[in-house]
Each structure stands twice: as C-alpha cells, then as structure tokens.
Write a structure and sequence with these properties.
This protein has helices spanning 2-8, 125-131; strands at residues 13-16, 29-33, 36-40, 45-51, 55-62, 65-72, 82-84, 92-94, 97-99, 102-108, 114-119, 135-136, 148-154. It has 155 residues and is mainly beta. The strands form two sheets. Strands 4, 5, 6, 7, 8, 9, 10 and 11 form an eight-stranded antiparallel beta sheet that branches. It has a five-stranded mixed beta sheet with strand order 1-13-2-3-12. A hairpin with a 5-residue loop joins strand 10 and strand 11.
C-alpha cells in the first residue's frame, strides 16, 4: 500500500543491492541496509522485505535462528528500558517487549538511527548475541566496506 501510494505521487522506490540481488545477500560480507550494519558470518543470510522513505525491513537468518528486522535511519528513541548502554562503538539495547503477539528488542544509536528485531518467541541468548554485533547508521551517512547494501532512492 505504501509503495502504491508513493507511485501514485510520481515517485519510484528502488531497493538496490550492490552488487547483489536479494537472493544473493549471504555472508560472509558486510551488509548495510535501512540503518543496521551487520557483518554477516558464513551461513548467515538477509532477505529484503520492504523499503520506505526513512527505513525498511528484512529477515536475518543464521545459526541463531530467524529475526525480522525493521531499521529506521531517522528515528526517535525507542520505548522501553535500556539494558545495555550505548558507547562510541555500540548502540544501546533495550529490554525485550511483547508487542502484538511478537517479542521485540530495539537498538538505538542515541541520535537518529534505530532497529527493531522481532520474533514469534522470546529472543534467545544466541539472538541477543547476534543483535549485539549490529551497528547503526543514520540517513545522510555512508558506512564503509559494505559489500551488500540496500538503499532507497527516489528517481
């Protein structure tokens, strides 16, 4: 619906992976998309789902299981309690919350970038460890060494 609305306004949404297609987003490689930066390990995979003006979603799969991720490059502070403080090298991690029958953990860089990780079951220690490997970038920033990338462009 959002995509149809954007098209009706005369915009074209392009989700591009450089140099890969959606089915090719496999590790090991650095993935940069919709604000999360993930150094994918061998056997890990990202499947893009949906993109929008300030963010988008993808599915992240690995030995830890499957997480649905929604990244926002222009976000406010997520709701909830911070359980792991942010630093210069790591975003803050928020306590798990149950929202609409799904379990969610958010991370935030303290300024404008956030990512929300959801699962149908409470997140496991392995999933939390995987989330702790994620860093964030904001709109207007260009992270380096991204072999796999999703970008939203308006043409």
């Amino acid at each position: 619906m959002k995509l149809a609305y954007a098209a009706a306004l005369g915009f074209t949404l392009t989700i591009a992976s450089v140099p890969a297609l959606a089915s090719d987003l496999e590790g090991p490689a650095r993935f940069c998309g919709y604000s999360p930066i993930i150094d994918l390990l061998a056997g890990e995979r990202v499947t893009t789902l949906e993109g929008g003006i300030h963010g988008g979603s993808f599915r992240w799969e690995g030995d830890f299981g499957i997480l649905d991720v929604h990244g926002v490059g222009w976000a406010s502070r997520p709701k909830g309690r911070i359980v792991k403080a942010f630093s210069a090298s790591r975003p803050a991690r928020f306590a798990e919350r149950k929202i609409d029958e799904r379990y969610q953990v958010a991370i935030w860089n303290g300024v404008h970038a956030a990512a929300y990780f959801t699962s149908p079951a409470p997140l496991t220690p392995q999933q939390l460890t995987a989330i702790d490997r994620v860093s964030l970038f904001e709109e207007g920033q260009s992270p380096s060494n991204c072999k796999l990338r999703t970008t939203v462009t308006w043409e």
